[in-house]
Amino acid sequence: AFKAAVLIQRWYRRYVARLEMRRRCTWRIFQSIEYACEQDQIKLHNFFSYLMDHFTPSSSKERDFISRMFISGESFKEAELEKYCDYESMEVPDSYTGPHLSFPLLPDHATALLEAFKQKQQLHARYVLNLLHETRKHLKQLPNISHVSTCYSEEVTVCGDLHGQLDDLFLIFYKNGLPSPSKSYVFNGDFVDRGKQSLEILIILFTFLLIYPKEVHLNRGNHEDHMVNLRYGLWVGLIAMRRGFLQNPTELPFSCSFSYGFTKEVMQKYKVHGKKILKMIQNVFCWLPLATLIDQKVLIIHGGISDTTDLDMLEKIQRNKFISVLRGKKRKESYRNVEIQEINGESKAEADPAGNETALSLCPQPRPAQAPSMANKLEFSRWVRQTVQEQIEWCRRLVDISESEEEELTYSSMVSLTDLDGPCWTRQEEWKQILDILWSDPMPQEGCRVNTVRGGGCYFGPDVTGKILEKYNLQFLIRSHECKQEGYEFCHNRKVLTIFSASNYYEIGSNRGAYVKLGPDLVPHFVQYQANKTAHTLTMTQRQDFPVALISRVEESAFRALREKLFAHTSALISAFKAYDKDNTGRITLSNWATAVESVLHLGLPWRMLRPQLVRSTADGMLEYKSWLGDLAMEQRSQEHIQSSLLEVIYRNRSNLETIFRIIDRDHSGLISFEEFHQTWKLFSSHMNIELTDDGINDLVRSIDFNKDGNIDFNEFLEAFRLVKQSQ
Questions:
Q1: Is the separation of the CB atoms in 219 and 188 below 8 Å?
Q2: Choice among 45, 109, 223, 226 that is catalytic
Q3: Residue 484 in this model has a pLDDT that exceeds 60
Q4: Residues 115, 112: Cα–Cα separation, whole Å
């Protein structure tokens, strides 16, 4: 009996260990893909910023267009903003059955909003704009670092990322109670994006902020940034399904559904006044405080710190000037003769022509091929787009110089500030302070280094944490920014606490949400939860098997996303595999397969451990890589047998196409006008030495407008890309 008990115990421990390993691998996949998406956002922004830095408008009309396109609303003065977002002129019709607001707000208004949102009702645009207007007025009076004391309340509750998941906020209020004079809350940023009810979360939080200004505190997160919100989710997977790429919605890969979404959400819910609401929210975001201090002993920031974090400087920064942290981009002396533009586009200085030549000499520019005759419009259109693609790739290589050299000052903590002059140094240093506290992550190693995984901020070690705590006489830090499986996690000898409040973030069952309560003794007490209706309806027998079923479901979703990622890089993988296949046999070792895959995807995953889920076992330890890639293509290919290479390109570039479309579509109407397209083409062609007449550009835009309605929608935008790649 004793031997049997030991044997059962051994089996059980082995079984639990395997489950834990599967769970960790699944988590690693989700997190790596999430951070890779953030890198894509930053690279695309750097590319457009590079074009901007080397574009000299030839007329006031072009200058106005560029101002609207890349400096969206930043030049709005206060009076202009209030006039543009005038809510008083809006009438609420008698047929409106949603909640009504009157100012000053009362607790009953908050209760009515909560009930209305539970019933899927929508707040009228007049009330939304009025609420944003009052919130903005209140936030402008607040310091950069809010100060909270436990002397005036029994405890302070700190919540992490919510990311548009309203059910999690409802559950927090259900478990912990609504904000009140005796119950203070700190919400630590990232209220929006990814979830479907970001706007409702903002409305609720802003309402409680105005009702209880001393008990409710909001910190800014890295997603309270309109440039991040622009990477919206058009649910390209649904478009792909409609075109036959996918058979049903359940096959939608992770990165299709895991989209940012806030800009699109607002425009879908408020089709008439959505632009005004977005403009106002953009301005409200930049007034959000940057940090919160509890009893002068606990610092709450969204991301983290760096070895240069200076709380005294953070308190003095004019935070409203940094509407987008992604715009804190400057270029150093590698483009020495190009005048440095002010952050957020406030400088009117133009680039020196000689400076452009210096910059362009860093990389040989491809010469466009001879243009075909305008008579053959299809051939001419193909030539134009192919030339653009070549020039874009060249610009990307120029932008990516910063990855290997420190010659370019870009959005990352690798900036060297010593070469800048006095005023520029101060502004750039302020930007870096905000960047680091919004984007940084802790690491177990000592020191402080560039956060290459996210592409922004830094990794800070326990020594950096210790120095900051000692310098400002703090006990510990609370931050969010990272999804944790249990909803919270300590690191750096329990001196850094990560709190994450969005449960089921990657997939149902992937993680718990949590919040932390601090009393006068500042000892953290955690409450975990999972806003999952499925788990609440299970029988006792089903509950026993539920953890295993959840792991299998989450694991399946993660590997589906990973296979999509592999498929999207088919061409690069073939080149990498051929480097190990010297004899052109079409076969490589499994070890070489793992090395080659990591060299292409750079996800930092344990590929040898993941191999059994991705590659069929082989008797001789060799892999026929072309057959394996063919199997990947079959998972993504449609019944119409769409060309595999075409589908690969669409999968790899769809997020960038979405963001480019949104940047051009400045009025967020979901349509690109001919004028918007014409001016955007001027931006590209002026730098790429592609000479086209106005008639040529008009022919090009008309060729993309398939339904001839005078505008380009996203389907037409994507279809033009698909047809060109197919013809090539």
A1: yes
A2: 223
A3: yes
A4: 5
Check if 163 is active-site. no
Question: Do 632 and 708 fall within a single domain?
Answer: no
Which residues lie below 8 Å from residue 607, measured CB to CB, with a gap of 6+? 593, 594, 595, 597, 598
The residue to which tokens 């919160």 are assigned: 292
Q: Quick: pLDDT tens for 235-279.
A: 333 333 333 333 333 333 333 334 457 888 998 899 889 889 999
Among 618, 638, 658, identify where a domain stops: 638
State the total domains in the chain: 3
- Asked whether the beta carbons of 182 and 502 are under 8 A apart, the reply is no
Distance CA 491, CA 498 (A): 8
Whole-number Å distance between alpha carbons of 614 and 608: 10
CATH number of the domain encompassing residue 578: 1.10.238.10
SS3 at position 242: helix
Q: Is residue 36 part of a domain?
A: no
- From first CA to last CA, the distance across the chain in angstroms is 72
Q: What is the CATH number of the domain that holds 517?
A: 3.60.21.10
DSSP state of 161: B
E strand segments, 281-409? 291-294, 298-300
The stretches of 292-442 forming alpha helices (DSSP H) are 311-316, 353-360, 377-399, 422-439
Cα distances (angstroms) measured from residue 250 to each of 26, 240, 294:
19, 13, 45
Length of the chain measured in residues:
728
The dihedral through the CA atoms of 610, 615, 617, 618 has a sign that is negative
Q: What type of residue sits at position 238?
A: L
- The one-letter code for the residue type at 298 is V
Name the residue with tokens 């995984």. Answer: 453
CA distance 568 to 191: 31
Question: What's the predicted TM-score (pTM) here?
Answer: 0.71
Whether 11 maps to a domain, the answer reads no
In this predicted structure, the answer to whether residue 607 has a pLDDT above a threshold of 50 is yes
Same domain, 460 and 591: no
Clarify whether residues 694 and 648 are in a common domain: yes
Asked if residue 601 and residue 618 are part of one domain, the reply reads yes
> What is the residue type of 554?
V
33: which 2 tokens? 């893909």
Confidence of residue 208 (pLDDT cuts 50, 70, 90): very high
Do the domain assignments include residue 175?
yes
Q: Can you read off the two tokens belonging to residue 726?
A: 């197919």
Say how far apart CA 66 and CA 76 lie, in whole Å: 15
Pair (571, 479) in one structural domain: no
pLDDT per position as a tens digit, 550-601: 567 777 878 887 888 888 788 889 889 999 988 888 889 988 999 999 998 8
Supply the pLDDT for residue 438: 95
User: Of 644, 669, 667, 672, which Cα lies nearest the Cα of 657?
Assistant: 672
Asked if residue 456 lies in contact with residue 39, where contact means CB atoms within 8 angstroms, the answer is: no
**DSSP secondary structure of 560-592:** HHHHHHHHTTHHHHHHHHHHH-TT--SEEEHHH
Among 332-336, 458-462, 483-487, 615-619, name the one with the lowest average pLDDT.
332-336
Between CA 469 and CA 486 the distance in angstroms is 26
Evaluate whether residue 205 is within a structural domain: yes
- Asked if residue 681 and residue 628 are part of one domain, the reply reads no
Domain with 715 in it: 642-721
Contact 413, 451 (CB under 8 A): yes
